[in-house]
Amino acid sequence: MRRASRTRQRRSVPLFRLFSVLVLAALTCTIVAALALGVLIKRQAGRDEARPSDAIVVLGAAQWDGKPSPVLQARLDHAFDLYAAGFAPKMIVTGGVGTGDEYSEGEVARQYLLHKGVPTAAVLTENRGRTSFESMEGATLLMQRNGWHSALLVSDPFHMFRLKRMATDLGVQAATSPTRTSPILSGSNEERRYMAREVASLADYLIFRR
Fold first, then answer.
1. Which of 25, 152, 170, 207 is the most buried if burial means most Cβ atoms within 10 Å?
2. Are 136 and 170 in contact (CB under 8 A)?
3. Chain-centre distance of CA 2, in angstroms?
4. Would you tell me the crossing angle of helices 160-169 and 2-45 to the nearest 10 degrees?
């Protein structure tokens, strides 16, 4: 009995070591992958690729009882500046109705731009998307219906890499121009939290395409 017990112990030790090595390897790969994605996100965040395009696509953010939140307003103001500078003749605003909300992000964004003087015919609305990918899908459909192929994407800096990858996967010739006036300040703890969430969202998209 003692000999059999010692034999089982000797077998269990190598198995435990193997399991520990596999867990450590998986953890190391996860950390390395997260750091690599973080570098890609950070590099794209620092780029402004503004160039003439068929349309400016503005990704939605929270609206507050029919008014743009500061984050959404910063995106819209930057998109308006690009439109006024002649980078594109049309704008597409995106975003559906959030849980408990009465207004869609897209419609609030549209009304904001109209009040700034953008002609009604120049603003198209995607108001069903509840995620970034759904919004990009909706914006791409609007572009296809109008025969447009290129888009200048506007959002917060940390959002740009994933958006450009999504747009490219959907067949859009995409360039990015992030807002620099967002209340999510560069280097702040809030930005770090958004960056960490963006790394997870990008990994989710690359694996599951959603």
1. 152
2. yes
3. 61
4. 90
